[in-house]
Amino acid sequence: MMLSPEQTDSDLPWSQSDAETMLNDIKVGCITDDPMEGEGKTKSLAPQALSREEKRRRRRATAKYRSAHATRERIRVEAFNVAFAELRKLLPTLPPDKKLSKIEILRLAICYISYLNHVLDV
């Protein structure tokens, strides 16, 4: 849209700064490869005034973060299952190789500890 000599920026439906703001909102997070004059640094197209929560969300949205998180979770679950297997080996059941759920293992452990306390008290 061309301006006539008598028309000012304020007569337009939006001012130049509004157009720049809209463009910057679209390009949030983009960085140009052009260094700033004399500083040798890259400049950001938009100021990164993100909240701590928004930064955390963006960091967690990356494939690298999700992959690392999935790996940590697998290790945690594996350690959890090993601990249940070790506890299961210490509990007497008939037959000894009977498959028990985690909640059954915990309940049986509670009962077995109570029984052992009772035996020690007698």
Account of the protein in words:
The structure is a single chain. The protein has helices spanning 16-26, 52-60, 63-90, 102-121; strands at residues 31-35, 42-44. It is mainly alpha-helical. The longest helix has 28 residues, at 63-90. Mean pLDDT is 77; it is low at 12-16 and 29-39. This is BHLH domain-containing protein.
The largest sheet, given as strand count, sense and whether it forms a barrel, is: 2 strands, antiparallel
Strand order, biggest sheet?
1-2
How would you describe the shape?
elongated
How many β-strand stretches?
A: 2
Distance between the termini: 97 Å
Helical run tally: 4
**SSE run:** HEEHHH
Q: Which quaternary structure do these chains form?
A: single chain
| Residue share in β-strands | 5-15%
The gyration radius over C-alpha positions equals 32 Å
Helix content: 55-70%
Overall SS class: mainly alpha
Key traits:
single chain; mainly alpha; 122 residues; two-stranded antiparallel sheet
Topology:
Elements: H1 16-26, E1 31-35, E2 42-44, H2 52-60, H3 63-90, H4 102-121
Antiparallel strand pairs: 1-2
Q: TL;DR of this structure?
A:
The protein is mainly alpha-helical and 122 residues long.
